[in-house]
Design brief:
By secondary structure, this protein is an alpha+beta fold. The strands form two sheets. The protein has a five-stranded mixed beta sheet with strand order 1-2-3-6-7. A two-stranded antiparallel sheet has the order 4-5. A hairpin with a 5-residue loop joins strand 6 and strand 7. It is elongated and about 60 Å long. The relative contact order is 0.14.
Length: 181
């Protein structure tokens, strides 16, 4: 086992120990109570971590928490007053991938091409203000044309995944506030 493999094994072992059990909850912002609860499967079960050839520069919990914060913020904007949303990210593969055949100088370079689109699988439950389940389902978010769409923040490393979540929220819940359900 070479040094890189040991580091990968240790990183995944620590992540597994920290996230033993089922879904991992992202902490809600302390200042205001969010109506949106975001959890995810243990990182070692996610495609982005399982398929990694080398350790990632940014640990999975960091980018998962960033996506959870984004999802909480955006969902709060589109949900009708009083409704709550529970989301579990069951799988995720970030846009782009590593291409080791380019040589050692490209070891840490994530190549973003249309053949490596972002993918997010999730389960959600929409709960009404009276506590009843209004809607529940699974969603497989994909954007094969992700590179042909402009992005508001080209410096955000999670811009494609955030756009997937924004598009899903708009499709799934965007019209409810205006319709009054």
């Amino acid at each position: 086992m070479n040094t890189m493999q040991r580091f990968t094994f240790l990183t995944l072992s620590v992540a597994a120990a920290l996230t033993a059990g089922s879904a991992v909850a992202a902490p809600a912002p302390a200042a205001t109570e969010s109506r949106v609860e975001v959890t995810w499967n243990p990182p070692e079960e996610l495609s982005e971590v399982r398929q990694a050839v080398r350790p990632q520069r940014q640990p999975p919990l960091e980018w998962l928490e960033k996506l959870a914060a984004h999802l909480r913020h955006r969902a709060d904007q589109v949900l009708p007053a009083g409704d709550r949303l529970k989301v579990t990210i069951t799988d995720i593969k970030l846009a782009g991938d590593y291409e080791p055949w380019h040589g050692p100088r490209f070891d840490d370079v994530r190549i973003v091409k249309d053949i490596y689109p972002p993918r997010i699988d999730l389960h959600y439950v929409l709960i009404g203000s009276d506590g009843t389940t209004l809607r529940e389902g699974d969603a497989k978010l994909r954007d094969p044309a992700f590179l042909s769409r402009s992005s508001a923040n080209d410096s955000d490393s999670l811009r494609y995944e955030k756009r997937l979540l924004d598009d899903w929220l708009r499709r799934e819940f965007g019209g409810q506030a205006a319709r009054g359900r």
